[in-house]
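note to self — DONT lose this again. spent like an hour looking for the file last time. sequence + predicted structure for the chain T wanted, 665 res
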Amino acid sequence: MFSLANKKVLVVGIANRDSIAWGCARAFRAQGADLAVTWLNAKAEPFVRPLAEELEAQIAMPLDVGQPGQTEAVFQVIADRWGRLDTLLHSIAFSPKADLHGRVVDCSAEGFGLAMDISVHSFLRMIRLAEPLMGAGGCCLSVSFFGASRVVKGDKTFLEFEKWWGGFFMLTEPEIKWIVEQLFIGNRLSKNEARIEPGRPVDLKAIRAPIIVFASHGDNITPPQQALNWIAETYADVQEIRIRGQRIVYMVHDQVGHLGIFVSSQIARREHAEVASPLETIEALAPGLYEMRIEDVTERDGKKISTVSFAERSLDDIRALDDGFADERPFAAVARASEVQAQVYDAVLRPWVKAAVTPTGAEISRALHPKRVERALASSRNPVMTKVARAAETVRENRRKAAPDNPFLAAEQLWVDGVEQAIDLYRDTRDMVYELAFYSMWSTPWARVFGRTHEARRTLKNNDELRGLPEVASAPCNIDRGGFAEAVIRMLVMLADNRKGVRRDRLERSSRVLTQDEPFRSLGAERRAHIIHEQTLIATYEPEQALETLPQLLADPAERELALKVVRYIPGSTEEMSPETQQLLQRFHEILGQPHFLGDVAEDPLQDVAFPAPPAALPKPEAAAEQAATEQAPSEQAPVAEAAGTTARRATRRPRPTAAPRDGA
């Protein structure tokens, strides 16, 4: 194997452990190279920085090739730190979502130009900057994917899945023990007892990324009550989910089976597409529990156009899927019995097994496993199957579609239906026998006493304890502090809570405003999430005071008018608004002293408004007075649109002397 010792390598394009760039970076590092690693933005940093540390990267910094100056900054740091560069790996690509759907000829010129600039021309710009650093020669690599250049047929897809599903994976002992002991037996994860390693618990309440759950009534392995019960077992109420700043979104299908969830069968294809498409906008939801619903509205060119909405749900909706936890009590005895058996095995049998098993014997046992032998005999490795392979090829080449009135088609369908019903009958009978045998063994009074020590569930907080959490206690203190951003987000949260749900188109508009328009874009993902979290708590626990203090956040008439336009733009057409939404909007107008406005706001009001960038971080309490005094001086920022001039200044004017957002109580 060649060596890259003392070679300097820049890797651009790591997003997570599934990235091609991550695999390349690991290979570079394994051969001794010194690495420089970049991530796209602040949202990607928490995922990439740990990988950079694992690679012992000497340089790690953000790089968005679409932002002027960032590419030059990366190469300047390399020049200052290393003075040279031996290898450049370019593994980035982008295209606007709207241009990825439909036909190639319908791609917009702007979308095509942006895709080419980021995916292709950025590589040329990097080469130009790398050239002076490669005085002794170097290598520039670009990783690309030939999307849609080949047709993937159903038979190949099926065989690939069958190979994956029917494979026999080699897990290490710690992996097997962790999966079985932490998840399968007793489900320690929902009890907050699971440990990655001693001293490192896995707390579901500490997850900050949106949690997406896909369940189905047709899944007899992990039905909805099992897939979703952990929510009711982990949280005292939906209010606690909001307090923690979490977003949990679930969807329950009517019929797709367990395999369909994994392989995206034809039945589940629509659900998978609709689940994946709004992922980027889910973070614009206020913290809470939502059910994602897909509704067919129209059919265009033979395809159904679906509407996605997010309806607020309570823990009672989750509990309604099940008939209680009484039927789960026998599993406590199973959990304890499993622990006892593991301890006996480790103490008595394990030493003898380790002494008796050799590497050669283990390999022979693995190769002669009945399932491996069965698959090997039916594969092309078996000379006897050569004739079958030739026959299959002959059939494939001479296959002709039968006429619709062919009587054998009806016979075939009748046979298939009969086999399907027989398999269903066998499955239901087998499951019933297993269930009766399980409860006969583990639900006896003796088993109940034996497993009583393992029946304890996670201790949940009551409402009084929830109100005492630091996040809830501190949020009302800032109810009259903030500016344009806080006011708009507060009103959007109250609108969503008033509707008890959010449609996807409204969520996309909200996401676009909160991530692409100023002053929200300059807030950064972490601070924006903190404001949404804080305003959700204020709107939840002090709704009336939250309304009454809006004028203190929007002191100027111009910024009030602009804020109300933004808030009216998000819900869309007035005809599509519920009466409750219209009443709340009118109340916003009354509280802010603005005339009632009954028209529609079709265009983004912030699209052409320039805002000065907000402070990089929340000011400390002792610096608040000094900063406020300083900002009384005439602004030296660039001119702002006249109609929103005062708004732009106030949007970053009122510092909020609060601590950084907590990760949970």
